Amino acid sequence: MSNIPPSQSPLSRPPPSSPNSRPMQATDPNQQIQRGPSPYQSTPLGPAQSGIRPNVPPAFRPGNFQQTPSGRPLSYPNQTAMSPTYQVMPANSTSPPAVENLESPSQRSDTPPSTSHKPKRLYPKEITEAYTESNTYGGQYQPFNPAVAPGGIGQQVQPPAIDQNAYQQPQFFTPAGDQNYQATAPSMTPAHYSQQYNTQQYNTQQYNTQQYNTQQPSMNASMGGLTNQLNNMNLGGHSQTQLINVNLIGVPPNVGDLDAPPPPINLPPNSSVTQSDKANCEPSYKRCTFNSVPATASLLSKSRLPFGLIITPYRSLKEGDEPVPVVTDTVIARCRRCRTYINPFVNFVEGGQKWRCNLCFLLNEVPSQFDWDLQTSQQANRWKRAELNHAVVEFVAPTEYMVRPPQPPVYLFVIDVSFPAVQSGAVATAAKTILESLDRIPNEENRTKVGFITVDTSLHFYSLNSNSSEPQMLVVSDLEDVFLPQPDDLLVNLTEARSVVESLLSRLGDMFKDTHTVGNALGSALLAGFKLISSIGGKIVVLQSSLPNIGPGQLKAREDSKALGTPKESALLQSAEPFYKKFAVDCSRSQVCVDMFLLGSQYSDVATLSCCPRYTGGQTYFYPAFNAGRSEDALKFAHEFAEFLASPIALEAVMRVRASKGLRMTSFYGNFFVRQTDLLALPNVSRDHSYAIEVSIEENITTPTVCFQTALLHTTCFGERRIRVLTLSLPVTNSISELYSSADQIAISTLLANKAVERSLSSKLEDARDALTNKLIDILGVYKSAITGSQGASPQLQTCENLKLLPLLALGLLKHVGLRASSQIPTDLRSYAMCLLTTMPSQLLIPYIHPRFYSLHNMPIDAGTYGPDGIIMPPSLNLSSEKLERHGAYLLEDGQNIFIWLGRQVVPQLCMDLLNVRSYEEVRSGKVTLLQLDNPFSQQVNAIIGKTRESRRGVYYPHLYIVKEDGGDPSLRLWFLSHIIEDRTDTVMSYQQWLGHLKDKVNSGSF
Ligand SMILES: [Zn+2]
């Protein structure tokens, strides 16, 4: 600790009686985990490491740090400016809890507000009466006017590896590659694409401008465009309920349909009490694996289709999206028996004085205030109430939904300041990003609190007294029995302490610049952070650049390259250390969420550290081989971190899904902790996180429709307790054909991705792949036998129109970096991919498993220009190397990375227009920031990339790589080609081979 004055001595710890001294021991981490067989078995650790263990190789040298992206010289006052304010802390100096007289965290967590509909304490009299049986306001009803609402395998292609030499190659983070990719790799176009380019004027056979194509119009592109147009004509037109048979073999999959909506939900007439077109749930909030629910368990079983819900309750609003309507009068009508919220699918009876619950069919009184406008004190029109018109609605919750006043947003930053963290520029970039984001952090009520802990082999706290202009650093070296230093201004109001917070952040990047301390005590820092905020709840934001290797939760660099691709690989994908899960469970009880930003230059043990976000509703972000000296690295991290800080969050949340009688929620996938069988605890609800829930049929369903209602009780950033309710009503069917014709291939793929990850962790990757393959065989086999009635061997493989992309998406999963068979994929990358596969909403997930692929050299003239709906995108191409023409330029993106592929005979003019170099030979491959050049082509491509980055939900800001067909980095080329999933590699089937394999299995099986 070169930055600590010699006089600084480790602080003594408080006496054992300190109420905060041992928060970890009263908990049982195994309690009520409902994730199926736990994948998070601990593996025995070796002897505890006794101290600081350098984990930085000799090649890791200071040097690039000065080139941080700030662009300004790092002239912050260094730590000597802080020295005068250092102080040695007295012993016995735990902070008092910030909020007194609250129920203990465990008491809180055991009494989920959404279900404990207890006698009201602070409830207005009228509303209390509204919940009672007697209806004293009955005479005020308008004449009852029921609204009539008619109709109302063995993939060897190389992933982005953590190259052991990455930090020795400052220019690019390049994925290593094994050399097994033989593939149908770029099928070379015939000789007529030879060098006859007129480089001054790109050829104009079909399009007037921007045609880099040479001899002839690309039939593929134009056919693709035509097909897409036809598809677009069909959008929304899936109104047929009849099955449409589709032959799969020999036909390229129509990837333009990946954006098509799911089959329509055909409810019986008058299902909804209003005629609102918002009465049923949008798929972006909640979708089911089929839009007709089987009436019996035997029909479900016979169909072999998975039954599940994909829920994204807190999705972001893009331009043009309608905000969720809010019911502000705190009149919340719920079923007395099953606690369902009143919704568009209930029935009003007895002159409108009662409503029949559409989940359990109990008759309930309509609340007396239901037809009353509190603001005007006049009768109101019931049929205008938002909860009867909108499937997605938010109620302002009265006090009975609170166990304490709404808590403020809290951001406690735990920042690794050991040598690798400082060296890579992570500390400076993080500090600068936080500083620049202070106005964007949710703080509408000026209640938001912030705090900072920096950690290497000691913990450093910062006293941020708003009356002081300078922050004070307080150092604690006792890592085993963590305590908080005395001042209680370690966690401060952001608005009041703004200047001292700014002062700290402007110095932080430079404060440790001369450190040589190698070693990190993340576990101790987390325990300290927990003590600091557990009485309020909030977010612990971890910025970690090295493997925690001392104190509680210390980890080893356990990656074993020999285990990759073998059954032993699964152990590496599981948590190495029970500390983090146990800590996360404690956090969940105290409404503390942990988000992990992992910026390690080496093995980071994503598998273990991601446990904290997984059980607390947070997220893991991973920046392998991060080096802020590369502007692309700094830009990506700063952008994503800033968006993360600016995102609205929901606090102190619980979520429950209720369903009609006979249906039961059985398995839950996503980042949360399961309490009380089916109550999901979410200390924070992250924006755009998705959750998958499997459903079983326990009893035969005798009603024409069923309903799923999700209730998310949460506190907004601006201090309001709210309940977001999402209601999805679906028809019931006894027909297997109807079941199949209503199946949603996007929802099915999303659920299967979640199940595959779960299986990989609880068993083996191979088992997960087999299970996925078998599920496809089952579904296609049932289709053949039960729906087409075909017997015996068939030369064709059929499915229905609405499931025709399911085999392609399954193949995408089998070839995905998270799941594919390979001995070359670093564990961290697999683990991170699994984090994404289980949290992304379908809108992000589908491109992640089936990237989007565009041709640039011959794109339509209006691609990349503004149209009525924003930037016009080129038509999507099939992920087949047949599309790769030698003179072509292509863009491929999966939401995490963007690649521009340049064929070896790309015309020089294109190189000039796009990259400002004279020829293909001068193009440098690797991670780049694309230039904005003064020509239409550059502007169009930049616009397409900009649209790609913006159109995805979530904070992700993909890297951009230039890939050359030859020359350049071979591993980068292989990484790119690993996304071309319709191709065959030497060990993995092509799409058509995959279909042939499925067909053989279907022909030989019995279904
Ligand atoms: Zn009910």
TrEMBL record:
Provide this UniProt record's keywords sorted from A to Z. Answer: Cytoplasm, Endoplasmic reticulum, ER-Golgi transport, Golgi apparatus, Membrane, Protein transport, Transport
Q: Where is this region: Disordered?
A: 1-124
Q: Which GO terms describe its biological process?
A: COPII-coated vesicle cargo loading; intracellular protein transport
What range(s) does the Sec23/Sec24 trunk domain occupy? 406-643
Q: Which InterPro entries match?
A: ADF-H/Gelsolin-like_dom_sf, Beta-sandwich_Sec23_24, Gelsolin-like_dom, Gelsolin-like_dom_sf, Sec23/24_helical_dom, Sec23/24_helical_dom_sf, Sec23/24_trunk_dom, SEC23_SEC24_subfamily
Q: Where is the Gelsolin-like domain?
A: 871-943
Please name the GO terms that the record assigns under molecular function: SNARE binding; zinc ion binding
Q: Where is the composition biased (Low complexity)?
A: 1-11
Question: Source organism's superkingdom?
Answer: Eukaryota
Gene Ontology cellular-component annotations: COPII vesicle coat; endoplasmic reticulum exit site; endoplasmic reticulum membrane; Golgi membrane
Domain Sec23/Sec24 helical span(s) in chain numbering: 744-846
Where is this chain's protein located in or outside the cell? Cytoplasm; Endoplasmic reticulum membrane; Golgi apparatus membrane
Gene3D superfamilies registered for this protein in UniProt: beta-sandwich domain of Sec23/24 (2.60.40.1670), Sec23/Sec24 helical domain (1.20.120.730), Severin (3.40.20.10), von Willebrand factor, type A domain (3.40.50.410), Zn-finger domain of Sec23/24 (2.30.30.380)
Family to which the UniProt record says this protein belongs:
Belongs to the SEC23/SEC24 family. SEC24 subfamily.
Name of the protein in question: Protein transporter SEC24
What is the species listed in this Swiss-Prot or TrEMBL entry?
A: Gigaspora margarita
